[in-house]
Design brief:
Layout: H1 5-12, H2 14-18, H3 26-34, E1 41-45, H4 51-58, E2 62-67, H5 70-80, E3 85-86, E4 98-103, H6 115-125, E5 126-137, E6 143-144, E7 150-151, H7 156-165, E8 169-178, E9 186-194
Parallel strand pairs: 1-2, 1-4, 2-3, 4-5
Antiparallel strand pairs: 5-9, 6-7, 8-9
Length: 195
């Protein structure tokens, strides 16, 4: 099966992308971890170079890192010294296995028609009361960036409606300005919700 443009980008640029200078989203990580019991089981979807997993592991959490890119998984494994499962979001089949799901700048690549199913899979993977953290680039329609990567570009209202329809509770959506790998100004949406 040929790689789509997004997957091809991460496979071909894994070392550069995985080892880039990146500010850890420490404030968001700490807020997410504060809502979990010590040592809680966390699934990271799209771990990239492994920096966020490394931080959560250092805080004593039981982290299961995953990424869709074989090459990025290798980069993360070298950093965190543990296996990284190579998996597409649509392959998630866990049932009540995790207390939290960390999806920092990863679900933003899921095609819009697939988002309800992916969120349903994540919800099923969480234990009752479990929490998801996910960030997206804001927009109105699907599109591509200058590297050819696909983005779903949701609106805050659209994302909130999708989560509500999916049965999520205690949904909080925040927006802020920042940047990304392409160094362009980006409007980010951060969503947190509970099963």
């Amino acid at each position: 099966m040929p790689l789509d443009c997004t997957s091809a980008f991460y496979e071909e640029n894994a070392e550069t992308y995985g080892k880039r200078a990146r500010s850890l989203p420490k404030q968001q990580l700490d807020a997410f971890l504060a809502g979990l019991a010590p040592g809680a089981a966390i699934l990271e979807l799209g771990c990239g170079g492994g920096q966020d997993s490394a931080y959560m592991l250092a805080q004593g959490f039981d982290v299961t890192p995953t990424d869709g890119s074989t090459e990025l998984a290798r980069q993360a494994e070298a950093l965190i010294d543990r296996p990284v499962r190579v998996m597409q979001f649509q392959e998630l089949d866990a049932d009540s296995a995790f207390d939290g799901v960390w999806a920092q700048a990863s679900l933003l690549h899921v095609p819009r028609p697939d988002l309800p199913d992916v969120f349903a899979r994540i919800r099923r993977a969480l234990r009752t009361g479990g929490v998801i953290h996910a960030t997206f680039k804001a927009g109105e329609a699907e599109g591509h960036d200058g590297f050819g990567r696909c983005y779903n570009y949701p609106s805050a209202d659209g994302l909130s409606a999708l989560l509500t329809k999916g049965g999520w509770r205690h949904i909080t959506i925040e927006e802020n300005d920042g940047g990304g790998y392409d160094s362009k100004p980006t409007r980010w949406i951060t969503a947190m919700a509970h099963r």
